[in-house]
Amino acid sequence: MEWEAVVYGPVKSRRLGRSLGINLTPLELKVCNFSCGYCRVGVPSKGNVTAQEFEEYGWTPEQVKDCITMGLQSHNRENTSIDYITIAGNGEPTLYPWLENIVNHLLLERNRILAGKPTAIFTNATTVNQENMRNAIYKVDRRFFKLDAGDEKTFRRINVPIGATYKEVVENLLTLDNYELSVAVTSGDVSNYDSFFNAEFTQNLRKMRFTRLFIYDIDIPKTVSPRFNKKTEKERLDELAEHLRRETNKEVIVLWEPTPRESNIPLYPQQIN
C-alpha cells in the first residue's frame, strides 16, 4: 500500500496546530466501536475486526511501520511544517491489535527522522482496561479522550456505540490520570447540551484526574446525518464552560471558530482534531 494511506496531512487541528496524522485503519473500512452521527469519515463503523482481517486488508504491523518510516522521511525531505504527530485517522486507533508495536516504532522513527516533534493520540477510552493498549497510549506525549454525553441515553444517541456502554467509558476514565478530556457539543435535532448539566456527570468530572477539558462545537457541515449540521452558538459553549469550571474547579477551554455553512469541508483524511 502507499504510505499516504497511513501518514496523512498535516491537517488543521484546533488543539494541536499542524497535525501530521497516523491512520491505522484500512481505507475501505471505519474500524470503530462508536458510530457517531457527526463523524466526518462518513461511513458506518465496523466495530469488531480481527487481526486476521487487518492482515487480509494488507494492514500488518510490518507494512504499517514501513509506511510510517517512508511518510516521515518524505515530510523531512520536504521540510514540512509540523507541530504534532497524531495517531487518529478514520477509526478508533486502539482497535488496531498491534498498537503498542506501532507506537514503539513511531517513537523510534520520530527521534531519528523528525526529532523534537511531539506526539499525541485521540481515543474513546473504551480499551484502556487492556494493559497493552493503556501502555501504548501512555507512551505518547499527549492523550485525548472523548466523553460526548452526560448520561447513557444521550451517549447512545450521539455516539451509537457498538459493544460499549457509557458506564464502562466513565469507569475507564476514572482509572486514569494525566490526560485531556474532549467534549463535543451537538445541536439541532440531536442535542447533548442539557446532559452536561446532570449532577452525576459533574460529580464524575470532579473525580477524574484530567489536566484540562476541551468543549467544542461540531463544525462540520458535511456529516453522516443532517441532524448534526446545526452549529452550536459560542454563547452556549461559554455558558457550559463556566458551569463546568464552577462545578469542577478545573481548566475548561472552549474551541470555537466561525465557518461558513456553505463551505465544502472534505471528509477523511482532512480531519480536524
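The above is record 1. Record 2 follows with the same two-line structure.
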Amino acid sequence: MTAVSTLPATSPGTPPLRMAIVGAGRMGGAVLQGALAAGVLAAEEVGIFHPNPRRLAELSERYGVRGIDDAELHRAERVLLAVKPQSFPDVAPLVAQRNALFVSLMAGVSAESIARRVGSRRVIRAMPNLGAALGVSATALAWLPEASHDDVSMARSLFSAVGNVYDVREEQFDAFTGMAGSGPAFTALVAEGLADGGVRVGLDRRLARELARQVLLASARLLETKHPSELKDEVSSAGGTAIAGVRTLERHRLRFALIDAVEEATRRAGELSREEP
C-alpha cells in the first residue's frame, strides 16, 4: 500500500512539509479548504497522502496541494488523520513515527489508541461537524498531556478556520457527537417538517422549502444574541398564532423527542467508541 506521488519530485527549494493529510474525504477536505482560505496553511506546505495513486492524483488536483509518498509523509511535522476509523489499523503502520504531531478527525478512536499505534504521544483529537464545509462548524478538541502548547495552538487555528472551537474532555466526546455532530440531521428533520406543514396548508412545495430554510437561518442568527426562551416569548404574542403552535408542539412532546434523540445518539457514539479498531 505504498502511494507514489504523481507530481514532480520534491526539489531542494520546495518548502518543508508542515502538514501531511492522510485521507481528505468530505470532512478532511473541508478543514483543508478552510485552512488554506484563512491562510492558516499555505498550499505549498501541505501534502496529501493516499495509498491509491489514482485517488491521490484526484485529491491533489482538487485541493491544489502536492501528492506525497511514504518518505515525504515520514518527514512531515504534523499529520492530519482524516481516514475512516475502520481504515485506521491499515493506515497506522504507514504513518507511524515518533516525532510528529497527529491530529485525528476519526470518530470513536481514542487518543491513547492512536498514540499506541503511531508511536507518538503528541496526539490531538478533533470532532468537527458538517458545518465545516461552510465555515460554521462546532469543533471539539481534546489532547494528550504530551501535546505541546504550540501543538494545541496550531490545532485551534486550524479548526477556527472552519468555525468555533471548544475544549472538551475526551470522555465528553460522545456527548458532543450526539448533539453537535448529529444535530444537523435533527435540524434537517425540523426543516422538512416545517416545509411539509407549509404544503399541508396550501403553499407550493418549492416556496415551503425556501421558507423553512429562511426561518431556520433567521432563528440561528437571532439566537446569537438571544436565549431560546427569549426568542420564543418574543414571537409568541398573547392569544396569537405562534403560541397556539407552541402548545401543539408541547402536546406532541417535541422537546422530549429532541432530548431523547441526543441521548440516543450519544449512546450510539459510546457503542462505536467501544468498538474502536
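The CA atoms of residues 40 and 277 lie 31 Å apart.
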